[in-house]
Amino acid sequence: MDQIHSLKHQITSLLESVDDFASKYAELATYNAPIIDWHHSGDYRQTVIRGLKRFRSSVEKEKDYLQAIASTHVPPRDLPTNAPHLLAVWEEVTRAEWPIGCISQVLECPDGTQVKVDVVAKGGDEWIKVNTIKESRLMAEFREQDAYCNFDYSDGEEASDQGFGRDQLTNSPIEQVALLMKSAQSYRRLPHLPTPKVKYVLNRMEENPEKGYPDPRIKKTLDAIRSLGAELVLASDIRQTPSHIRPPPTEPTTRILLDLSVVVALCCDSTHFALPKSSEELEARFRPLQLDQDGQITLAPHIPVTKDLCAQLQWETQHPLIQEIQERLSSFGASPEFWVTEEVKNRLPKIAEIIGGEDEQRRARAMFTGEEDFWAGSRWKGREGVLRNMRVEVIAADGWEKIDLQELSQSPFRQGFANVCEIMLAIVEKQASACTLPTPPPPPKTNKSTSHRPARQPQPGVTLASRLPSAHTLRTFLAGLKHGMTVLTNNRGAVGKVTREMGISEGIAYGREDAKGKAVVWVVNPSSLSEWRRREVEKKNQVFLEANGDHPLCSSFDSGPGLSLVTRPQAITSSTHPVPRLELSDSGTTETEKSCRSEISTNVPALSFPPPQRTPPILPNLHASHPAVGPNQQHPSTANT
């Protein structure tokens, strides 16, 4: 009974240790990608250590089992228990280098084989397998082999052909390690990631026991395991304290690459024009006045573009873009550098010319030339902070293409992100080149009765390339990644697609650069060029008031340049579209911004993205078979990036 009580005490302590780890260290032991996203900070991390809950359940069952035996007060002749194995596995969990991917999981390999791994450590770079076999059990295997070899075969060569000769050493540990090594070699990972190293733990055997081993084959077994390429750990080994890397809070680098979507957002009207002072004013900014069937003044119904613009303005009131950039960069000792690719610089003027307003076009020019005041007329004028001298430099077109991904090896995440971008870019460009091939001529018409009908053009299907980020977005990502910059983007959908293919839900090893806490990607909410719509609504409202001057409610409205809407409930009655009153509003007013945000957040439900869905990767053969979890919501943006 002493053995039972001892095991019961050990299992109870083990259960407490597991609970303590789960509550204090499990989150720290999981992988957190170096991505900044204020709105969705938890979407780019390894969500759980797979197998931890099931392992705890096994420990709890073992505790109940030992408790039941102890309550009988009758010691069993033989005590079948999993306690030694559970204790040994947990010992390796506490010694494993973070991030820890999983505990006691069966991993599937491309060839269909399955292998049980007790701990996946170092973000998948290390597989740990525990074997609690004793010397006595190994000797029993040898005796069984000897008995088979000594069997009285009629043909002496038959035994040799069967492979059971004394000269050929084989036993369960060697076979287990051989399978682990083979599985590790074939296990699918991203091309830049190393083959997992196998650590094989024999926690009940020593290198050189005091009385030696009774059979030389035991020593040869240890040598054979090492010769297979595994790291052998024995009970007699002196082991170092594990290193647990905990990257500091992520912050941008001093050099920041702006993608097209963010350059557009920095120029757009919603980023600089005065914030609405109420939820009603927010709705009315992009929806003109109209008379409904009952003769009441209401807001015109939403059209797709106004829904998007209102949503973006709502996000801006909750967390302004300029404010976030200022807060992130204010701790820098030196001024931040902003960069774009030549492709972005060339595309921005065309976008601004087509859908941008006068102020938005001016900002797009000032960002590069410095000849005009970028902050003129902005609500941030006088409060620019580190962004006072807003200038953007341009990366040479061929500068980033010559940089090899191997130069990013100090950051497995940066290297992996770039690797996936290159793979995706090759697919997108190949698909694009295939689409440019001349179409074959149509077949001759045979039915004269239908010859006058135009031929039906086949609709393009959903191709693999159509589900990937655009070639422009991928090239922008690669330029920033290869130059060691933080990529600032609002293309959350593209970032989510790349991280899914990287398999961050399984974890990735931290590199030397990752441990510094420098962000590889910085995600903000989108904001499209909206000045055209705001001014269009102001003009329509002006015309509406002039045309309906005899309406009894029109006398409640003021008119003039720079019209904006603020709440005046007594001016309008409408059950469907409550409309506030028109008043003059100074776009430079900033004193009431905080109260405006409070008013809007109180009256309008907070906008948020739906939680990330567990979706299969787009490129199923790119990484391991376990699906990654990441953000997959693409937000509306006028600029197609």
Distance between the termini: 71 Å
- Number of helices in the DSSP assignment: 19
What's the pLDDT, averaged over the residues? 82
Strand portion, in percent? 5-15%
How many independent structural domains? Answer: 3
Low-pLDDT windows of residues: 159-165, 453-462, 559-614, 624-641
Helix content: 25-40%
Number of strands: 15
What global shape is seen?
Answer: elongated
Largest beta sheet: what is the strand line-up?
1-13-12-7-10-11
Q: Summarize the main sheet.
A: 6 strands, parallel
Integer-rounded radius of gyration? 33 Å
Main structural class: alpha/beta
Biased composition (Pro residues): 608-619
Organism: Cryptococcus depauperatus CBS 7841
Region (Disordered): 434-463, 574-641
Protein name: DUF1308 domain-containing protein
Structural write-up:
The chain is of the alpha/beta class. It has 3 domains: 1-12 and 47-81, no CATH class; 83-151 and 163-244, Trna Endonuclease, Chain: A, domain 1, CATH 3.40.1350; 247-434 and 464-631, no CATH class. Helix content is 39%, strand content 11%. The protein is built from 19 helices and 15 strands. It has a 6-stranded parallel beta sheet with strand order 1-13-12-7-10-11. Strands 2-3-4-5-6 form a 5-stranded mixed beta sheet, sandwiched between helices. Helix 1 packs antiparallel against helix 2, helix 13 runs antiparallel to helix 14 and helix 15 packs antiparallel against helix 16. The longest helix has 24 residues, at 412-435. The N and C termini lie far apart (71 Å). Residues 159-165, 453-462, 559-614 and 624-641 have low confidence and may be disordered.
